[in-house]
Design a protein that fits this description.
Blueprint: E1 3-4, E2 11-12, E3 15-19, H1 23-33, E4 38-42, H2 46-54, E5 59-60, E6 70-75, H3 82-91, E7 95-100, H4 106-114, E8 125-127, E9 148-151, H5 159-171, E10 175-178, H6 181-204, H7 211-215, H8 219-225, H9 232-241, H10 243-277, H11 283-289, H12 291-305, E11 320-327, H13 332-342, E12 349-354, E13 360-367, H14 372-381, E14 385-386
Parallel strand pairs: 3-4, 3-6, 4-5, 6-7, 9-10
Antiparallel strand pairs: 1-2, 8-9, 11-13, 11-14, 12-13
Helix pairs in contact: 3-4, 6-10, 10-11, 10-12
The protein binds nicotinamide-adenine-dinucleotide and prephenic acid.
Residues 19-25, 43-45, 48, 76-79, 81, 85, 101-103, 127, 130-131, 134-135, 234, 238 line the site of nicotinamide-adenine-dinucleotide.
């Protein structure tokens, strides 16, 4: 399970095996590679494995008989298969310590116990970083920077196993947090799983939205519905495995929404009466009717304010975005990237905003702040329409 560095109390991880090279497995592998850990990879989907290797996340696992066990094996597969993958990995002596990353913990632990897994070397985990995209192509080495990483060891876990998985989380830039599996599941029902359903419920309204409404979509609806873009099959699995706690939270959300809808319905009837009778004296009555709405908005603001990480806790690099107008024609993006390369500037990320029917689009280039002036000057000199600071 790795060695302990004398005097530091920290475990040194030299070799980690990642089973499942999707979004989370590949992101963990990339973070570990950046810390010079030797990473071996496996996935039943050869295309995922190949892409993860090509991205520099590690090398394919080679299980020749007698090969030394890795310090840790990370099972980064869908929740339902974790216990079986764990049992098989332990039977083959793949690693000294095992962890997983599934978004639910009680059902994974129950499954592992049921299959007779060795619970001394298994420390279930859940990194609280992710994206609405899946697969290795969406992976990022910085996905877990400044995020919590839940660890849910049972009483049977060896302290050395817990120390090794704690170090794994730290190497990925996360803050390990040890808690009991049931407490974890109730907590993530509140801060992750029910929010996902609420986001889906809002996004589902857009299925039958008219083109005019969609054309008016701004950042608000994009923020509220981003996570609804996640993989439905994965989320069905997560919700099935944490059904009770998620249902409890959703009942409370539904009660707030129902009370708000009721109050607004009554308000709209009152407003219609005002319009026909022009009776300002009854206005105070309508304000009282708005009390449930006022109350929800105030509680919502307070709850939002309680989310940690607003005061510098997140150490994720902050990129500066510079918009560049690009003609809608073949090769335009290639020329833009070539100009950045000539200027010696690395584009960290790029998004394209394109309005169908218009001959132009906007490429939003994500840069390290210190690279902005260099690139803006180089692109302007080549005649590009650059808009830093917009
Ligand atoms: N997506 C997120 O935001 C997020 C965040 C934290 C944790 N998680 C958890 O991480 C796990 C992986 O999710 P993801 O988002 O990376 O999904 P993903 O679809 O990107 O990747 C899952 C990978 O697991 C592989 N796989 C399937 N069966 C396997 C098996 N038997 N053995 C090994 N690999 C197998 C698939 O081929 C795929 O490459 C899930 O348990 C999920 O609950 C997801
Ligand atoms: O940021 C996102 O896209 C996520 O949904 C990530 C998120 C979350 O709810 O925070 C989703 C599920 C995971 O199990 C952990 C993290």
């Amino acid at each position: 399970m790795g060695e302990e560095t004398a005097g530091t109390g920290r475990t040194v991880l030299r070799r980690v095996s990642v089973l499942g090279t999707g979004l989370i497995g590949t992101s963990i592998a990339l973070a570990l590679r950046a810390r010079d850990v030797d990473v071996t990879l496996s996935d039943p989907d050869p295309a995922s494995l190949r892409l993860a290797c090509d991205l520099g996340a590690g090398r394919p696992m080679d299980r020749t008989p007698g090969s030394a066990p890795a310090d840790i094996a990370v099972i980064a597969a869908p929740p339902a298969v974790v216990p079986a993958v764990l049992r098989q990995a332990q039977d083959s002596g793949l690693a000294q310590v095992y962890t997983d990353v599934a978004s639910v913990k009680s059902s994974v632990l129950e499954g592992a116990e049921r299959l007779g897994c060795d619970m001394a070397t298994f420390v279930p985990g859940h990194p609280m970083g992710g994206r609405e995209k899946h697969g290795p192509g969406a992976a990022r080495a910085d996905l877990f920077l400044g995020r919590s990483w839940a660890l849910c060891p049972t009483g049977k876990a060896d302290p050395g196993s817990v120390a090794a998985v704690t170090e794994l989380a730290r190497l990925c830039g996360a803050d390990p947090l040890v808690l009991e599996a049931g407490a974890h599941d109730r907590a993530v029902a509140l801060v992750s799983h029910a929010p996902h359903v609420a986001s889906s419920a809002v996004a589902a309204r857009l299925v039958s939205a008219g083109e005019t409404a969609l054309a008016l979509a701004g950042q608000g609806v994009r923020d509220v519905t981003r996570i609804a873009g996640g993989d439905p099959a994965m989320w069905e699995e997560i919700l099935t495995h944490n059904a009770g706690p998620v249902a409890d939270v959703l009942r409370e959300v539904a009660a707030d929404l129902a009370a708000t809808a009721e109050a607004l319905h009554a308000q709209s009837a009152t407003a219609a009466t005002f319009a026909s009778e022009a009776d300002p004296a009854s206005e105070s009555g309508s304000e009282d009717g708005m009390q449930p709405v006022r109350d929800l908005l105030a509680r919502g603001r307070s709850g939002h304010g309680r989310i940690p990480g607003k005061h510098g806790a997140v150490r994720r690099p902050v990129y500066t975005v510079i918009p560049v107008v690009i003609p809608d024609e073949p090769g335009a993006l290639g020329r833009l990237f070539a100009a950045a390369a000539t200027a010696g500037v690395n584009i960290e990320d790029v998004r394209i905003e394109h309005t169908p029917g218009l001959p132009l689009g906007v490429a939003e280039l994500y840069l390290l702040p210190e690279a902005v002036d260099t690139l803006a000057e180089a692109l302007s000199a080549e005649g590009w329409s650059v808009h830093p600071g917009v």
